[in-house]
Every structure is written in C-alpha cells, then in structure tokens.
From TrEMBL:
UniProt cross-references to Gene3D superfamilies, sorted A to Z: DNA methylase specificity domains
Origin species: Sinomicrobium weinanense
Family: Belongs to the type-I restriction system S methylase family.
Keywords: DNA-binding, Endonuclease, Hydrolase, Nuclease, Restriction system
Any Pfam family: Methylase_S
Protein name (record): Restriction endonuclease subunit S
Length: 450
C-alpha cells in the first residue's frame, strides 16, 4: 500500500480528481522528484532543437533495393539488425527528406506500444522511419547519450507513458512531452553516461558489420534471385507437402549449388522446443529471468519477468547456453519473425525462453557459428521458410528443422567463426555498456532520496 499527501494545487491541476491511483502514480511521483533535483532540471524542449514525428504519407513499397529507401516502423527500430526492412519508392515518396534519421537522435515509439527508446547510431543513417516514431534532436545543452539514458530509465519511461500528471497516454505527440523534466547531473557524471552510450553505439555498429561480413560470403556463393509463383514438378520430387511454398524452385536451386551439403540433423546434438507450461512469475530475487520470442528480436534485452520453477517440471529445458541457436517456430513469412535465427550470447546465457523458441545445439561451436551465419543469409531464410506448414499461422517443427540442408564447412570455416565470435562479443559488450549507463542515471536519482 502506498501512502502520501496530496496538495490542494494538485487537485486543481488534476480537474478535482480524488482517486489515489492518479495522485500516487509513478508519473506524478517521479515528476515531483525530478523537479526537486539538487542541481535543478531542464525541460525536454530546452535541451532539444526539434521534437517531431515524421510526416504522414502514402507509402509505395518496392522490392528492388536500388529503387527504394529502407523504411522502419516503431518495432523495427528496436531490432538487433535491420535485415528484412521494407523499401519505399524513391521516385514516388514525396518530402522524404523529413523522414531521414540522423546519428545521435533519441527515437521514441509513440503509437501502439509507446515509450520504447533507441539511440540512433551509424546504422540508422540513410534510413527513413514512420510517423509512429518520435524524434528527439539534441541541441548540445545536455549530452545526447545522457538524454537517451534518462528517457530510457524507469523515471523517463514513467514520464513518457504516464505524463507529468499520471494520466495514461495512448499516443505520444511532441506537445505531450515537451515539458518533461530532465535532471541536471554533475557534468562529469553526464559525460560518463554519454561516453558509455557512444561506446555501446559504436560496438553495436561494429558487431553488425562483422555479422554482415560473415553472411555476405553465403549471399555471394548461394544467393538466388526472384521467386517463381507458377511451376510444375514431378510427384516423385515433391517434399513432405504438396503446397507450392514447400516445393519452390529457388530452394531447389540453392540446395543444388552446394558442392557438399549436410543437414542440421547430422550435426545437432539437441533440437527441440520445450512443452507448454504454466507461466508463474516471481520477483527478481526469487525466479529465473524469462524472455518471450518477440523480446528475443530486440538488441537490448531487458528482463521484466522472472519464472517460477513451480510451473515447470524441468526448468533447465527452458534455459539456454551460450552458442545455442534459437529459432522462433511460428509467424508469417512476409517480414515476420518466422525464419529468423538468433544465437545465445553472454546476456542470454542461463535465461529461460518461451516454448515457441526451438533450441539447436551442436558439440562444436565452429559448426554452430557456421550454421548461424548461413541461416542468417537470404538463402538460409528461404530454406527455413520452405519447411513451414500451417494455413493461418505457419510454423516449423523441430523434426522438419532437422531436415534443412546447408553447405558443408570448407576452408572459410575459421574465418566465419572469427566473424561470428567477434559479433557475439561486441554485441554483449554493447548491451552491458548501455545498461550500465541507464543504471548510473537511476542510481544517481535514487541517491537523492536517501
């Protein structure tokens, strides 16, 4: 139970509301706390040159990358990489200059799931974003990394999502947050936080570059353009299904281009998805950290839930180890999560994942990293999606996943291994630095309350 005193001025500001949920909300409490910061505060509009959403426009999507501009929605901005982004037409998209993202901005999801934030690094440059992403453009009065860290902290998030007076906001417009208070911390602390975010940002760019270099080898060797919608095939050549997407010719061409091939089943020591279970969540100190499949796609993986072993017969079936390949087994094939593969790093090691995630383990990390790099390529994704079944929501079973073919490791094995190893190390370090920066903000604010 929370207990507090409400001032008469609060009642006037809140339209004479008397319910405690309004006056004791986190947004209300944090707003008061920040405005009493020892060194004072500045409003968001004082430390930014612009606060704006992108313009609304009719979107003309194109499949040819040369004719289009990468376009991201509010969920895309949180992903660990931007593979699979849609492209809007260069020719038909008007005033596209106002949609460009620039390095150093803080991006906020302002529609649907609101309040998610991301710091725009070099990978965001030359990409456009929808009007559902609010852009925070710093003017130099406060370091951009500090502004981002504060807005990403529990204090900034509460003020973004609940407003300064505790009301629940369904959609964020610039005028909703222009007066959001930002505490002034000692300059040395601001700079320390900013430096951590810049370092994390650069590490993320380096990590994604290493991943692209590894997958580019498979893109060059095995990529097949186009998609044949109408074709004929002998009955004897059909796979486990008569559905066209389970027998597409492009996948046949990819497989025939392998000089030597293997199946996932020939190298996997484990390939399974845990059974359904009852989700019982506990406090942080009593449970096992848990992530859903959707949270797995995000670059910064924050744990909001901790799983109780009481609802699970064997909790170890749900934990993953570093180097384990992870595949979300259901979803759509047109830009959805189906066919996307991930790899457990230091951050995911020991965490529990949803029963919708298939785990693939081998007894050789070099093979796991080789397989991961191939499955991240466009050819690998096509072969994975070929194994899907289901009329409404396609899904992949572990048994069918074991039948997926991939090129046998060759003299590029060590090179690919080093690239993926570097990708994992830099991604983990980037993750740690960003969370450390946010933690420094929260601890500094908490120190005022002691």
């Amino acid at each position: 139970m929370k207990v507090g005193n409400a001032k008469y001025s609060w009642l006037i500001e809140g339209g004479c509301r008397l319910d405690s949920s309004f006056h004791m909300s986190e947004g209300r409490v944090y707003n008061k706390l920040i405005k009493n910061a020892p060194l004072g505060y500045k409003s968001l509009n004082q430390v930014t040159s612009e606060l704006f959403n992108g313009i609304r426009f009719k979107r003309y999507y194109v499949s040819n990358e040369e004719l289009g501009i990468p376009f991201m929605g509010s969920s895309d901005m949180l992903k660990s990489s931007f593979d699979g982004l849609k492209y809007i037409s260069k020719k038909l998209s008007k005033n596209v200059e106002s949609l460009w993202i620039k390095e150093g901005w803080t991006l906020i999801s302002c529609s649907g799931t609101i309040g998610n934030t991301v710091y725009a690094n070099a990978d965001f440059v030359n990409k456009t974003a929808s009007q559902h992403i609010l852009r925070v453009v710093p003017n130099g009065q406060l370091p951009s990394g500090y502004i981002y860290s504060y807005l990403s902290s529990k204090y900034g998030y509460a003020l973004l999502t609940q407003g300064t007076y505790g009301a629940v906001i369904q959609h964020i417009e610039p005028h909703h947050i222009e007066n959001l208070p930002i505490p002034i911390l000692p300059e040395s602390k601001q700079q320390e936080i900013h430096n951590l975010i810049v370092e994390a940002s650069n590490l993320r760019v380096e990590a994604n570059k290493l991943l692209r270099e590894a997958t580019s080898y498979f893109e060059k060797e095995y990529k097949v353009e186009g998609f044949t919608k109408v074709f004929s095939k002998k009955v004897s050549d059909l796979s486990f299904s008569w559905a066209s997407y389970n027998n597409n010719l492009e996948c046949d061409k990819i497989e025939s281009s392998f000089q030597e091939q293997m199946t996932i089943g020939s190298v996997a020591t484990k390939c399974f998805a845990p059974p359904l279970f009852k989700h019982i969540y506990l406090s942080k100190n009593n449970g096992h950290p848990f992530l859903t499949g959707a949270e797995l796609t995000k670059f910064i993986k924050k744990y909001y839930r901790w799983l109780s072993p009481r609802g699970v017969k064997n909790i170890n079936d749900y934990k993953v180890e570093k180097g384990t390949l992870l595949l979300y087994k259901s979803g759509t094939t047109d830009g959805g999560i189906l066919g996307n593969v991930f790899i457990a790093d230091d951050i995911l090691h020991g965490a529990c994942l949803s029963d919708h995630v298939i785990r693939i383990s081998t007894d050789d990390l070099r093979i796991s990293y080789w397989l991961f790099a191939f499955l991240k390529s466009s050819s690998g994704i096509k072969l994975l999606q070929k194994m899907a079944t289901g009329s409404m929501i396609p899904f992949i079973t572990p048994d069918r996943l074991l039948q997926v073919k991939f090129p046998k490791p060759n003299d590029k094995l060590d090179w690919v291994f080093e690239k993926i190893e570097g990708y994992i190390e830099k991604s983990s370090e980037s993750h740690r630095k960003e969370l450390k920066a946010i933690d420094l903000v929260e601890k500094e604010i908490e120190s005022w309350q002691k």
